[in-house]
Amino acid sequence: MAANLLLPAGLLGLLLIFSAPVSAGAIRCAITYGGETSVVDINPTRDPYTVPTRAVGSFLLFRAVFRDTPADLAGIDLYTYAERDAGPLIVHHASYPWPLPEGDFTGLQRVYEPLHDSELQYRCRHEGVIEGGKS
Predict the structure, then answer these.
(1) For the chain: N or C, fewer Cβ within 10 A?
(2) Cα(69)–Cα(63) distance, rounded to whole angstroms?
(3) CA dist 93 to 37, 61, 77, 100, Å?
(4) Calpha distance 121→58 (Å, rounded)
(5) pLDDT tens, residue by residue, 52-82
(6) How would residue 6 be classed by pLDDT, with cut points 50, 70 and 90?
(7) Within 13 A of 132's CA, how many CA atoms are on the CB side?
């Protein structure tokens, strides 16, 4: 009788191991503006329209939209906007399909704000898939 109970328990254990969540890994962007660098962690979203922009200096905004599902839309889009009285004006957009390569996937990017001659630099890294949902 005890052997009959061990078999289902063992199968349940294997099922839990193989169904453990797998995260997309860590995506981090280092943004430099005016000699100061900040690091931003980018998390996946299900609703790209709700991802906010991040102010960088006085005239620029940075936005990273990362989708790991559905497969046909998976990837990361990086936007830089110039802040204007009439609203944000896009000055840079880069798109990278999923899966991302590990390591630096953008290279050093330089974005210039057209009216105030401001420069924003960024570089993003993907630090790989981690099993168990931890990155």
Answers:
(1) N
(2) 19
(3) 20, 12, 7, 17
(4) 15
(5) 999 999 899 999 999 988 999 999 999 999 9
(6) very low
(7) 2
